[in-house]
Amino acid sequence: MLFALPAGAATVRKTGPTARPPGEIARLIRLGLPVYCGGRHGRDVALTFDDGPGVYTNLAIRVLRRVHARATFFLVGKSIERFPTLPRREAGVAAFGDHTWTHRFLPGLTRSAIHHEIAATKALVEHTTGRPVWLFRPPYAARSRVVDAEVRAAGLVDILWDVDSRDWVPGTFWTQVGKIVVAGLRPGAIVSMHENHGQTIRALRYVILPAIRRLHLRPVTIPTLLRQDPPTLGELRAGYAGCSTAPRPHGAG
């Protein structure tokens, strides 16, 4: 099956039918509600990285692998074109999601353009990683009814976050990134970061991962979090507010 990609991109041939999503993800796709966090009953947290792959990807992989941590990478199609071999390297420590082809503000595009941004990236991520893709993160968390409909039609679930590292803010020092993330670490947390910022990788190594270990939490992929400790329907319907009920783990500092 062929997908026509945005102008300037090659056509990607899918290698075969996408596998069926596991039960909890399939349920979330049917519901069509965005996920801001997991449940609050386990010890899992999900570290996520947007906008890659890029120049810091190999370093991020080494940092995660060193402590047997897992994460989820939301990849951008045009970045994969620049670094086509990196997604396959990430596969040892990661799950993957679709972050559009050009990282544009989707509600400002035509429906056809939205479709291309999502479908082309999904096809390329599956092609380069050899894995099915069920997760989607809209750039800037920007959604609309049309965007949501296209996401659901593509067999994807919207994954947002309840902990914003703010590593995208110009001038943010790595210790600040680490402090912000650690302050939000709770069971079920989904942490938003970017793999194309050097200060983020430094914060991950020296602040975030040591804090996760100190708090007796476990860094897992989004599919693992949703399988082991999914949000309730009430938490999903509450959106971001549904993530505010978890107690702070003992050992926080």
Structure description:
There is one protein chain. With 253 residues, the chain is of the alpha/beta class. It has one domain: TIM Barrel, CATH 3.20.20.370. Helices cover 39% and strands 15% of the residues. The protein has helices spanning 23-31, 57-66, 77-82, 86-90, 111-129, 145-153, 174-184, 198-214, 222-228, 233-238, and strands spanning 2-3, 12-13, 44-52, 71-75, 94-98, 135-136, 157-158, 163-164, 190-194, 218-220. The strands form 2 sheets. Strands 3, 4, 5, 6, 7, 8, 9 and 10 form an 8-stranded parallel sheet that branches. The N and C termini lie far apart (52 Å).
Short summary:
The protein has 253 residues and is α/β, with parallel strands linked by helices. Helix content is 39%, strand content 15%. Strands 3, 4, 5, 6, 7, 8, 9 and 10 form an eight-stranded parallel β-sheet that branches. Strands 1-2 form a two-stranded antiparallel ribbon.
